[in-house]
Amino acid sequence: MKFYLIRHGRTDWNDLNHIQGKSDIPLNDTGIAQAKELADIIKADKLPIKHIYSSPLKRATQTADILAAKLGLTYHILDDLREVDLGLWEGHTWAEIAEQYPGNYNEWRINRRYTKVHGGESYDDMFIRSLKALKELAATHSDDVAIVTHSAVIMALLCYFDNAPFELMKNYKVHNASITILDSSQVIEA
Fold first, then answer.
1. Is residue 83 annotated as a catalytic residue, yes or no?
2. Maximum CA pair distance of the chain?
């Protein structure tokens, strides 16, 4: 069994380099086109996806909806697949955060995995709930599953499975409407 980790399509906040986190930002026209193109590719390549799960955030559910319609499937929402909650940082650029919250920002840069941002959660909090969701899916499904989620979720999972520190997350950059494949055995053994 495989997990197809799919990052949602682009949003206006992606274009503006604003931190999204749990903010419920919809896809823009580019993101909708990306989701449609990805769905076409998945169908043309005959990827054996039998189930689709999505983060509850609009940008993910819109992507999942397009994918599900193309594949003739329904999708289910799992709250634990949502993006990291970046609290007061959301809606700002990284440069603004460095200026407005220098202490918390520097601490976060040094120890991204465990540092909680103002009013938010740590990457470890997000990782634990995301891994839990994947473990539950691995225990209940034998067919391939598409997971429509967010960049930080996917990057944190990749860091974990590669035994890399979360400070190296940027080395695992995932683009909008991209697919990252995980074998369920990795998840079960984690």
1. yes
2. 49
Query: Distance between CA atoms of 67 and 179, rounded to whole angstroms?
Result: 12
What residue numbers bound the domain in which 34 lies? Answer: 2-189
CATH number at residue 152: 3.40.50.1240
Per the structure, the count of domains in the chain is: 1
Any residues with CB less than 8 A from the CB of 118 and at least 6 apart, and which?
Answer: 87, 88, 89, 101, 104
pLDDT digits (tens, 9 = 90+) for 54-67: 999 999 999 999 99
Q: Order of strands, edge to edge, in the sheet holding 2-7? A: 75-77, 49-54, 144-149, 2-7, 179-183
Helix axes 58-71, 29-44, angle to 10 degrees: 30
Catalytic residue among 8, 18, 90, 150: 8
* Active-site hit among 18, 83, 90, 150: 83
Per-residue pLDDT reduced to its tens digit, 97-153: 999 999 999 999 999 899 999 899 999 999 999 999 999 999 999 999 999 999 999
